[in-house]
Write a structure and sequence with these properties.
This protein is of the alpha+beta class. The chain has a single domain (20-83, 101-152), classed as Nucleoside Triphosphate Pyrophosphohydrolase (Alpha-Beta Complex). The chain has helices at 57-69, 126-132, 136-152, and strands spanning 11-25, 31-38, 43-45, 48-49, 71-88, 93-109, 120-125.
Length: 154
C-alpha cells in the first residue's frame, strides 16, 4: 500500500483534544504533577485525547486523563487552550489543533493502572515536570496551572 502524495496545497482540517494537569500537594507543601512518557521517542507530555461523538470537552478531559494515567480525577477549573499546526503530507492534510487543558486533582486510582498509550506515567515535583515536558506549549500551560494552584494556597 503506497502513501498518497499531495501535488498541490494541503487540505486544512481542525482537530480538538482535551486533557488535564493533574496535581497533588506533597507532605512539604510542594506540588507534584503527572506526566506521561513514550520510551521509543523519549517524548513527555500531559494526558489528553480526542472527544467521542457527543462528548463535551470536560467529559473528554476526564475520560482521557483517567484512561491515560490510571487515576480518578476531578476538574477544578479550565487552565487554557493551546493551539498549534501539524501536517501529514502523505495524506495531503495539515491540521490546526486546539487542546483544552483543565486543572485536576487526583481523587484516587494509581498511575500503575495507566492504559497502553504511554509506556510510563509518573508523579514529579512541578519543577522537574517543567524540565521534562517535550513541548514548550505544554510547559507554558503547566506554568499557568501552577500559578492557579499558588493563588489558591492557604
Amino acid at each position: 500500500m503506497s502513501a498518497r502524495r499531495s501535488s498541490g496545497p494541503l487540505e486544512t482540517r481542525q482537530a480538538t483534544s482535551a486533557g488535564g494537569i493533574v496535581y497533588r500537594r506533597d507532605g512539604d507543601g510542594g506540588v507534584e504533577v503527572v506526566i506521561c512518557g513514550r520510551t521509543p521517542d523519549k517524548l513527555w507530555g500531559l494526558p489528553k485525547g480526542t472527544p467521542n461523538p457527543g462528548e463535551s470537552l470536560e467529559e473528554t478531559a476526564l475520560r482521557e486523563v483517567c484512561e491515560e494515567t490510571g487515576l480518578d480525577v476531578a476538574i477544578e477549573q479550565k487552565v487554557g487552550t493551546v493551539t498549534y499546526w501539524f501536517a501529514r503530507p502523505a495524506e495531503g492534510v495539515r491540521f490546526h489543533k486546539s487542546v483544552h487543558h483543565y486543572l485536576m486533582r487526583a481523587t484516587g486510582g494509581d498511575v500503575a493502572n495507566h492504559d497502553h498509550e504511554y509506556d510510563t506515567v509518573v508523579w514529579l515535583p512541578a519543577d522537574h515536570a517543567l524540565q521534562a515536558l517535550s513541548h514548550e506549549n505544554e510547559a507554558n500551560i503547566l506554568r499557568k496551572a501552577l500559578a492557579l494552584i499558588a493563588a489558591e494556597a492557604p
